[in-house]
Amino acid sequence: MSDDADFRTRNDISAGANTYRCTTVLQYWLADGRYFPTEVDLQYNSDDPFAVKCHFDAGTPAEVVWMFSRELLADGLFAPTGEGDVKVRPCPGDPLSVEIILWAPTGHTRYTADAADLTTFLFRTYEIVQPEDEVSYVDFDLELSRLEPR
Fold this sequence. Notes:
Layout (H helix, E strand, L loop, with lengths): L7 E7 L2 E13 L5 E11 L5 E6 L7 E6 H7 L9 E6 L2 E11 L2 E8 H14 L11 H8 L3
Antiparallel strand pairs: 1-2, 2-3, 2-8, 3-4, 4-5, 6-7, 7-8
């Protein structure tokens, strides 16, 4: 974990709650090359072992949440990855940063993150659920019941 004061953690692994949360600051890039710091809460929960949630402080009352694969985030630390709405890759020319691009119907946003902070977050999630154990945490009966018509 970096010593940067912008990286704060809240470890909620207690009393059966298998959740890890941390807050970090990503750089939000504008098309003209300017950027602004944006606070982001990263969350991992063993009830959804394949996913990472990112809660963005968009400066509006509406919460902005993106959910994507934990594996996508991990792979993007080392090589470009992602084919859909989320793309992650090492920053060209800056091996200490990671670029995250989020595509929505209204356009796309580009963020950069400290690779060390993301690595620390991922290692903490692996303390909860190892990648090879993810499938054993899925409640398939619950997931199937969500597909049934109401």
